[in-house]
Amino acid sequence: MAYDVEAPKYVRLAQTLQGRIEDGTYAPGTRVPSENQLVQAFGMSRPTVVRALELLKRDGWLESRQGYGTIVRGRPAVVEEKDRRGSAELTRDESRVPGRLVEVGRVAVPARVASVLGLPKRAKVLMRRFLVEEDGEPVELVSSYFPAGLIEGTELESAAPLSGGTRAHLEARKKVRFDHVTERVSARLPDTGEAQLLGLPDGVPVLSVLVIARDASGQALQVSDVLLPADGQELEDTYRLS
Q1: 0.70 surpassed by pTM
Q2: Which among 202, 228, 223, 201 is positioned nearest to 212, based on CA atoms?
Q3: Cross-strand partners of 103
Q4: How many angstroms separate the CA atoms of 19 and 14, rounded?
Q5: Exposure check for the chain: N or C terminus, fewer CB within 10 A?
Q6: Burial readout 175-192 (b: 16 or more C-beta within 10 A, e: otherwise)
Q7: 76: closest CA among 91, 105, 97, 55?
Q8: Cβ contacts of residue 167 below 8 Å, gap of 6+?
Q9: CA nearest to 82, candidates 73, 91, 70, 72
Q10: Cα–Cα–Cα angle for 63, 86, 172, nearest 5°?
Q11: Burial category of 156 from C-beta neighbours within 10 Å (exposed 0-12, middle 13-18, buried 19 and up)
């Protein structure tokens, strides 16, 4: 799968290390090479190695154990998809869900999405923004972002509601496979446009669920920012897609 912009070095290193976990080179329960060993083996700087390891820890592939080093956990644990918001966003049928598609177009990638997709600031991505409604009232605003390399040959840029969900659409047309999802939840204040769409007065926070769908190599295929009126603390979850 080709992207218009090459991913940063730390992302590429993380993908390489994850591949070695997948193929058994780094078996679950064993220690990964030290930072010094990785610096020497890959010819990359220590900050690059550290960022790659932190990325794999964040997504559940590695963990740090005091006095023992960095341990391989293996593929993130499989859990039930039931009631998982991430799965719901990937399978949402825009043509059947109450609500409306409010925006489709290429935009400058938001900073928090850029880091996940491995893109530089101001790179262009496709955004589909859908407002979910219940009884005519807005209850959820979903902004989904797709890297440029996944757009050609799909209907993602269509202003018409997409039927069947983005996961099925991309897997059928681009021959990619969605493997696992990471969800990061945090509270923040919405921008003016988001607040207007959700009908929120000034100063009311939203709960942001950043849904990151990846293939088996760890490459992000879709990032969706799901906004709901709420407050709360940040947390993260990772699980497999069947």
Answers
A1: no
A2: 223
A3: 129
A4: 8
A5: C
A6: ebebbbbbbbbbeeebee
A7: 55
A8: 90, 91, 178, 213, 222, 241
A9: 91
A10: 110
A11: buried
What pLDDT, on a 0 to 100 scale, did the predictor assign at position 99? 93
Residue type, 1: M
Nearest to 52 by CA among 24, 23, 16, 77: 16
Bridge-based pairing state of the strands 206-214 and 235-240: unpaired
pLDDT for 7 equals: 57
pLDDT tens figures, 135-190: 888 989 999 999 988 999 999 999 999 999 999 999 999 989 998 888 887 888 89
Q: How far apart are CA 167 and CA 83, in angstroms?
A: 17
- How many CB atoms sit inside 10 A of residue 79's CB? 11
* CA separation for the pair 91, 99 (Å, rounded): 15
Name which of 32, 40, 39, 38 is nearest 64 in CA terms.
32
